[in-house]
Every structure is written in C-alpha cells, then in structure tokens.
Amino acid sequence: MEKTLLWGIELIKSIQTIENPVLTVIMKVITSLGSEFAYLAIIPLVYWCVDERKGVRLGVTLLLSAWLNSVLKAAWRQPRPYELDPSVGRALEKSYGLPSGHAQGSLTFWGLVGSWMRAPLGLILAIGLPLLIGFTRLYLGVHFPSDVLAGWLLGGGVLVVYFLLGDTLERVLSASNIRIQLLTVVAVAFLMNALHPEDTSLGGVFFGLGAGYLLMQAKFPFSARLGADGQAAKPGTLAIRYLLGLAVSTALYLGLKKVFPSETSSSYALFRFLRYGLVGAWVSAGAPWVFLRLKLVGIKV
C-alpha cells in the first residue's frame, strides 16, 4: 500500500504541473458539483419541481451510497495525500481519504440523473462529469488515485444494484400497508445509525425523507408537474416553490445547528439526527403541504 500511495503522490505532482490560479478556481468549482451542498440544492429541485418519485429515489439512493462511503472511510482510515506530502495540498478535507466520496457520490448521483436524459447530455452527466470530478480531486491533492478508483467502483456498484433491484423493492413496499412501510424506514435508519454511530446525519435525513414521503403519499399526494389548476405548472410557480422551499430548508439546517447542543454535548448525536431528520421531512412532506396551502402545486389524480 505504501508504494501505491507514493506512486499516487508522484502522479498528483505530475498533474499539478499544469496548475495556475485560474485553473485552480475552475477545478474547485467543478469539484463542488460532487459535494453535499450541490446535492442538497438539486434533490429538492427535482422533488418539488420535476418529478417527486424521481426526487425521492435520487435522494434515497444517494443517502445509502454516502452512508456506505462513510462506513468504509471510518473502517480503512486512510490519510489524504497532503498529510503525507503537504506540498500537494490545494484544499483541505475533514474526513479520511479512501474511498473518495466525491467520486462515489458523483457517479451515483449524476449517473442516475443522466439515465433520465437523452444522449449526449445524459452521457456527459453520467460518465463525463464523474470522470472530471474525479480528476479535480487529484489536481487538488485531496485524494490518491486509488481513492478515486475505489469511489468510482463503489458508485458503479450502487447504480447496478439500483437498476437491478430498485423497481422490485419499490413494488414490494408499495404493496404493503403504510405501517409496514414506515417500519421499514425506521428499521433502515436505525441500522444506519447502529452500524455507523459516529455520524447520525445520514440516518436522520433518510428517516425524515422516507417517512415524510410516505405520509405525503397517504395524506396529500402532490404532483410536482402540476399547478393548482391541474395544468402543467408555470415556470414562475416552479421558481416560487423552489426558492421558498430552499429558504426554509436553509433556515432549518442553520437555525437548528445554532440552538441544538454542540459536539461537546453527550446528546449531540441524537439532536444531529433530529436536525437532519427535520430537514428531510420538510423536503418530502412539509414543503409540499405548504405549497398546497399556497396553491402552488396540484394533487395527483
């Protein structure tokens, strides 16, 4: 492994021979397309304004992929390149290196989004963008080539499981009553936290998103495509939905962080779960309910 890491640092140094300030800014912008903030902005957009079913599928798949990545990072505890050679560091990260979360997440996320689009845009998003994001991780010196390759392999594996089993699992759950569905969401969230108690945020979002979606489907099944008049929603209505929903999401995310216990508290993990759970529930159920009351969205027929 040591030889592989040393070879990786040499490759990073070779890539960084093309470095210049403008290119570094461009690389940081591109790499942000594989960050959690990009996903937090795009998943609600899909869910509220494009297709609620695709939105929840995208969110659940990405959350499970991110959870797997976090578990493996904690298990392998591999350093970042700049921790072995500070000269290659162009950015800093808080977590361990292997596997690359940006590589895995971008292939999972953009691979799924790209599959819904026609070529060539679909291929660019599904293949080209994850490759480019992986390259930026090497350029910035935050991942070894082996980290990026492992991330791509895991992301590809998640997509294979999704395409092979996604429809079947959804049909099985849809055939069950809502109590069984909710218990399934609770059980998965519990396992996510039990197997990776170091970070309860992903389990929290999964619980909030999943439970909220099920309750929304049972009580007020909105259609992201429709306006209150039952016709296709107008661009202005979609923009109001998105900006309003995102404003509340941001307020919950930042506001609850301020008022909930800090990392030094013994109850931090619980309140972190609650904070992320409330954000997930707002996205899947709270925002659609508000949109219905404001006549910004239509009900499925």
Determine the number of helices (DSSP H or I, runs of at least 4 residues). Answer: 12
List SSEs in N-to-C order.
HHHHHHHHHHEHHE
Strand arrangement within the widest β-sheet reads 1-2
| Head-to-tail CA distance between termini | 58 Å
Fraction of residues in β-strands? under 5%
Number of strands: 2
What can be said about the biggest beta sheet?
A: 2 strands, antiparallel
Which overall shape is indicated by the principal axes computed on the Cα atoms? globular
Poorly predicted spans: none
Keywords:
single chain, 73% helix, 301 residues, 12 helices, mainly alpha
In brief, what are we looking at here?
By secondary structure, the chain is an all-alpha fold.
Task: Give an overview of the whole structure.
The chain is mainly alpha-helical. The chain is 73% helix and 1% strand. It has 12 helices and 2 strands. It has a two-stranded antiparallel ribbon. α9 runs antiparallel to α10. The longest helix is centred in the middle third of the chain and has 30 residues. The protein is globular and about 60 Å long. The termini are far apart.
Q: How would you summarize the topology of this molecule?
A:
Layout (H helix, E strand, L loop, with lengths): L1 H14 L5 H11 L4 H14 L2 H25 L4 H4 L16 H15 L5 H19 L5 H30 L3 H18 L5 H19 L2 E2 L11 H25 L8 H26 L4 E2 L2
Helix pairs in contact: 2-7, 3-4, 3-11, 4-6, 4-10, 6-7, 6-8, 7-8, 9-10, 10-12, 11-12
